[in-house]
Design goal:
alpha+beta; Methylamine Dehydrogenase, Chain H; four-stranded antiparallel beta sheet; 24 helices
Length: about 1200
Amino acid sequence: MIPYTVNIKLAARTLTGTLNLQNKTAVDWGWQGLIAQGCHSSILIIDPKTAQTIQVLERHKANVVKVKWSRENYYHNLSSPYCLRLASGDASGKIIVWDVVSGTAHCEIQEHSKPIGDLEWLWNQDASRDLLLAVHPPNYIVLWNGDTGTKLWKKSYAENILSFSFDPFDPSNMALLTSEGIVFITDFSYSKPPGSAGKKVYIASPHASPAHTKPAPATAPAPTGAKKALNKVKVLITNEKPTAEAVTLNDCLQLSYLPSKRNHMLLLYPREILILDLELSQTVGVVAIERSGVPFIQVIPCAQRDALYCLHENGCITLRVCRSTVATEESVQELVYDLRSQCDAIRVTKTVRPYRMVICPVNENKAALMVSDGRAMLWELRAHTGKAANPSSGLSPLYSPVSFCGAPLGPNQKKIQDLSLNSMIGQTLIAGETLPTSSHQQEVQLKFLLTGLLSGLPLPPFAIRMCPPLTTKNINHYQPLLAVGTSNGSVLVYNLTSGLLHKELSVHSCEVRGIEWVSLTSFLSFATSAPNNMGLVRNELQHVDLPTGRCFAFRGERGNDEPPIEMIKVSHLKQYLVVVFRDKPLELWDIRTGTLLREMAKNFPTVTALEWSPSHNLKSLKKKQMAAREAMARQTVSDAEQSSVESSVISLLQDAESKSETSQAISAREHFVFTDTDGQVYHITVEGNTVKDGARIPPDGSMGSIACIAWKGDTLVLGDVDGNLNFWDLKARLSRGIPTHRGWVKKIRFAPGKGNQKLLVMYTDGAEVWDTKEVQMVSSMRIGRNVNYRILDIDWCTSDKVVLASDDGCIRVLEMAMKSASYRMDEQDLTDPVWCPYLLLPRAALTLKAFLLLQPWSGTFTMDVTQVDYSEKDEIKGLIQEQLNSLSNSCDNSILMLFGDESDLHFWTVASHYIQSFAQARQLTVSAAEGQAQSEGVQPSPQSHLDICHDVLCETSYFQKFQLDRVHLQEVKRSSYEHTKKCADQLLLLGQTDRAVQLLLETSADNPSYYCDSLKACLVTTITSSGPSQSTIKLVATNMIANGKLAEGVQLLCLIDKAADACRYLQTYGEWNRAAWLAKVRLNPAESSDVLKRWAEHLCSPQVNHKSKAILVLLSLGCFYKVGEMLHSFKSLCCGISLTHYAHKLIEAAFLEYARLLRTLGLREGAALWASRAGSAGEQLMEELFQGEGGIPEAILGEEVVELGLESKE
C-alpha cells in the first residue's frame, strides 16, 4: 500500500480581516511584483498573479500607516542579489525595514512618536540603494540608511508636511505638500540636507477666487464642467499668501510629478485634477467631474504613456489618456485627458468603502483596489482591436503602437501584446506629427477585467472552534479545518494548511455565540438574537453538514421566546449534547438520533460551568458485545448441523445482523460534571436514555464562583471569576489552587494528543499556557505588555499550536510560546505556485535569469533546466524548474519585466529601440551610397520613436516638436506679464523669433520693462549675419554671463546661432540639464552629440555618480562600443554581453568575465561558449572547464559568433 502523508505540521500564520482607517494609505505594489498592504499592526504580502497571501509580517505595535518596497534600480549579482526588502512606518513613528522572505526585521528606526507622514526609497543613486527618506510629523524630513538604521541628516520646515513627491527626471528636485501650499526644493542631495527653505507657493483653491480678482458672489453656483472650472483657475499658484476669504483650507488631496513628461505636476482635488506646467507655474489642463459625477479619491500618473489611473469614491477605477493634439484643427486650448476605460463600482456602505488603489509599476496595465472590509480586487486592463461602439462620443481613436521592443509590428499582427501599457496603446501624437501611412496601426478599445479577488475575515467578534484532532484512525482523510462564527450569522470554515477559505456557510440570522464539532465533517453552532423587553430571545441551534452544506434546526420548533443559550457541550464520543441556558434548567440531547433525552426539573441548580468526562465504558461494552456474538454464532452452528445448505443461509443472515448491529452505534456510558452558583460540583451519568445523579463534592473555600472546567485523563481543572486555577489530581485525590491574579478565567482548554497535559487559559486581558503535570505556566501574553489586541476566543489547532481570535479582526495561529511571528515564505504550503525569483537563493535567482536571457549554446530555446549541463543540488534545480513552469516563452524585455529589473528594463527599452533604428538607418545609407560610413550621432528617423517620458533620450525631431507644442500651450495659458516674458524667452531659445517679437511688443507702456522689451524686439528683428554685429553681441553675451546673467547671455548667443557656445557656458556653470535641452532643440546632430557626451562624462564623475543615466545618454547617441566598455568596467555583465551579442563584437575581456560568472553559477555549457569567444584568454578557462574529460566538445568550438554587423566609428 502506498504510504499516505498528511501535512500535520501547520505553519504559524495570520488570517486577516477588515482594515483600520489608519491603514488607508498603507499599500504599495513593488517592482518585485508583489503587493504589500497594512492591516492593523500587521503587513500582508499578496501575490497579485495568483491572488493569495504569501506572508504576514508582525512586529509593529501600532497601526501601520505607510509601506514602501525598495526599488530594483541597480545591477544584480551575487554580492547585491535579488532581495525582497520593504519599509513600513506605523502610527507610533516607528519604521521597520523587513527581509520579507524570512519575515525578519533588518533594522528598526524611531525618531518621534507621531505617525509617519510619507516614505520613499531613493532610486537614483548608483552608489547606494539603502537610502530611505521619511516625513516625521509635524515638519521634519529625515534621510535614513535603511540597511543599518543610521540617520544621515534631518531638516525641519516652517509648515506641517503632509507628503512629498520626487521629480522622476531630476533627482535634486522634490516638492512637499504642506498644510498651506507647496514647497519646491531644488537642491536635494543624499550627502547633506537641503540648504534653503525651498520656494514656497500657495494654492488658491480651484473654487475660491484667486487673490487678485474680485471674490465670486456667494449666490453663484459652484462651477461644473471643464470650461467653467478653467475660467476659475486662470491663476492657480501665487507667491503671496491668499486672503482669508479666497482660500480657507488647502483641500488638495494629492500632489505628484508626472513621470510621462518633464516639469509637469498634477494636483488632485475631490472634483478636479489640475495639470501644472512648472516652468510657468500655470494650469495647462483640467480633468473636471460633472455635478452628478463621483468625486476622486486618488490618481496615479503612468510613466509609459501620458495617462492617469483615477480612483473614485464608489470604488470605480477609470483610465484617462491624454488626447492627441493632432486631431483638432483649431489651436489647442489645453491638455485634455479622455476617459478610455472604467471598471465596475463596488457597493459602498458605512463600513465598506474604497481606500486606495495601486498599479503595477512594471507593466502599468494592472490595478489593485483595497477596500476597507479587507478585500483586494485585482483588475487587469485588456486591449482588443475594433472600432468604438459609440462613434458619437467624439473621442479620437486610440491606436496600437508602431513597434514592440524596438521591432516594428507586422501587418498580420492579430493580437495586441497585453504585456504592458506601452505595448497596448501607441503614443499621444503631438502637433506637427502625422500618422505614418505605411504603419500597420490598429484602432484599440480598452476594458478592465477582474482577474483576482482576495477577501478577509468579517468584522469581529468571532467564535472559533478547531475540528477534532488528528488521530491514527483519521489520518487518511484528515483536513485541519477551523470553524469561525461571525457577528452576521455566517460560519466560515478555513483550511489551516493553506490559510484559504474552505467554505462560507450562511447558517444563522444573528451573531454566532459558539460552535462544537460532532465529527470531522459536521458541527453544531448556536446563535441568540437581541433580547426583548422581558429578557427573552430567539435561540438558533443548527446542525451543519460540511460536504453537502445542509443545515437543519437541531431543536426543531423550539427556540422562540426563551432565555438565551449560555453554552453547548458535546460528549467525548460525540453521542450526547448538553444545552445550558441562562435562567432555565439544562437540556440533554442524543446527537445521533436528534432526540431530547431529558429536560431537567425546575428545581435543578443553576449551572455556571460544565464539562464532559473523557472516561467511558465503550471498550468494555464492545468486548461484551463481541463475546455475546461469538456465543450466538457457536450455538447457531451446533443447531444447524443437519443441513449444510441451511447453515450457509443462516451464516449469511447472521453476518448481515452483526453488520447492522455494529453500524448502529452502541450507547456507551458517559459522565459530565458541573458546578452551581455556590461552587458545589455535581456528577451525572448518562447511558442510553437513562440519566443518573452521582456524587456531589462540596465547594472549595479558596475558590470564588466557578467560571469554567476542563478535564483530561486524571486531571480536572477549575477556573473562577477571581483568576484562581484549581488543579485536581483524581488518581492521587489531591487538589492544588493557584491564584493567577489575572481576573476572570473566561475559558480553559486541554491540548489534543495522548498524554499531552498542556492547558490553554483565556482571561479578559490575554491568555496563558500551563503545564498541568508540573503545575506551572509555560507562556503568557497580555494586552498592553506584549500585544496591542484583546483576545476574543481561543482554541488548540494542533498539539503544539494555539489559535487566537482577536478584536483587531485577525485570527492568529501561533506556537505555544504565543509570540506573534512572521513565517518563512519558502516554507509555505501554497495552493497555487507563485512566480517570484526573489524567493530563490541568490545564486539560483541569477542562474534562472542567465538561463532565460541567453541560450546561444543550444540551437533552440528551452524552458527545461534539466536539459542543460548545470551542476547544482537537485532541490535547488527543482525550485528553479518550478519557477520556469509558471512561465511561457518570452523576449528579453518581458524577462526583465518578470524579474522587475528596473534599471535593466530602462536600459533595454532604449537599447533595443536605438539598435533597431541605427540598423535601419545604416541599411538605408549603405544602399544609397555604397560603403559610405554613417557618422556617429546622425540620428535615424524610424517609423516609431521613444515616447516623451524618456525626455532627452528621444529622437531630436520628436523632441523639438514636443517643445514647440508645449510652448504653444504655455502661450495660450499665460495670464500675467511674468508668464508672457517666460514664453518669449523660451521661443527665442527655440528659434521662433517672429512669435517672440509679437509677445515682446505686448508689454504695456506702464510696465517698468516696457523700454527694455521694445529694444529687445528691435534687436531680434534687425539681427543680421554681418561680422561686426555678431562679434559685438557675442562680447556682450560673454560679459553678461561673467556678471551672473547666464540666461540673458545664453539667449543672445542663440540669436546669433552660437547655441553650441551657449551650451558650453551652461555646462561650465553647472546647468547640465538646460544645456542638454538646448543641444536637443538647437544644434545639429554632430554638435549636439558632443554636448551630450560631455554630459555623460559629468554623470560618471564620482561626485555625481549617476552612471546608469550616462549609459542611456550614450545609447541614444549610438555609442554602443563605449557603452559596452562602461558596462564591463562596472561589472554589469548580463546587459553588456547581451548588447554585444546584439550589436557589436566587443572586447574579449567582457566575454571572459561573463564566462567566469556563468561558471560560478554552475552553467558549464554557457561558460564554455563565451570562453571560446574570448580568444587566447579564454583558452585557459576552457581547459579548466573540461579538465580530465579528454578535450573540448566539437559543438562549442564549431559554433560561430553571432553578429548583427553594426559598426560605428568611435
